[in-house]
Amino acid sequence: MSRQRGARLYGLLAEFPNADALCAAAKQAREHGYTHAEAYSPFFIEGLDETLGSGPSLVAPATLAGGLLGGAGTYFLQWYAAVVDYPINVGGRPLHSWPAFIPATFEITILGAALAAVLTMLIQNGLPRLHHPLFEVEEFELASRNRFFLCLPARDPVFAPGPARALLEGLQPMLLREVPA
């Protein structure tokens, strides 16, 4: 399939017969300087993310920050309400009776961590996205069943249509498609 004149290009998509061929292709793409290459397989392939040069995930640090922020904010809110804003002496206990603050602090800590983790995951995955250009390739729906795909996106700094096509053709893919943007 050739690209229509003037149509923007999302990238080139190549299909490989198995996980080993996909890993070898990803390694070749990385060696040629592609830093935004994307791989799609029906199951997790050990080491593929390192081969593609995926950076560390931000989910764990964001989860920690969300939990700490939620817990600290909740504790501060309870302390401020009980000690500063509306002090009430209940049964002679001190105003800053910290054991009473623990249940709500714990619950909001968990809630803050969970929300931060989900939001960070969605942002890192570019979700929600109602349409992705790869869905225009008919064969791509098999990526979740039994096919292995490598995409060299046009947004990659080293991407040039001719050399990218030559690189993928040299890897002898089962299928090679231009993906319109």
Notes on the protein architecture:
The chain is of the alpha+beta class and 181 residues long. Helix content is 43%, strand content 13%. It contains five helices and four strands. The protein has helices at 19-31, 48-52, 59-85, 102-124, 161-170; strands at residues 9-16, 38-40, 148-153, 175-180. A four-stranded antiparallel beta sheet has the order 2-3-1-4, with helices on one face. Helix 3 packs antiparallel against helix 4. The longest helix is centred in the middle third of the chain and has 27 residues, at 59-85. It is rod-shaped, with a radius of gyration of 25 Å. The protein starts with 8 loop residues before the first strand and ends with a strand. The mean pLDDT is 90.
In short, what is this structure?
It is built from 5 helices and 4 strands; from the N terminus they run βαβαααβαβ. It is of the alpha+beta class and 181 residues long.
What is the arithmetic mean of pLDDT?
90
- Characterize the overall form: rod-shaped
Would you count the extended β strands for me? 4
Work out the helicity level. Answer: 40-55%
Calculate Rg over CA atoms: 25 Å
Number of DSSP helical runs: 5
Could you say which structural class the secondary elements and strand pairing correspond to?
alpha+beta
Query: How would a textbook summarize the main sheet?
Result: 4 strands, antiparallel
The fraction of residues in strands falls at 5-15%
Q: What is the string of SSEs from the N terminus onward?
A: EHEHHHEHE
The parts where pLDDT drops under 50 for at least 5 residues are none
Q: Gap between N and C termini, in Å? A: 14 Å
Q: Please state how the strands of the largest beta sheet are arranged side by side.
A: 2-3-1-4
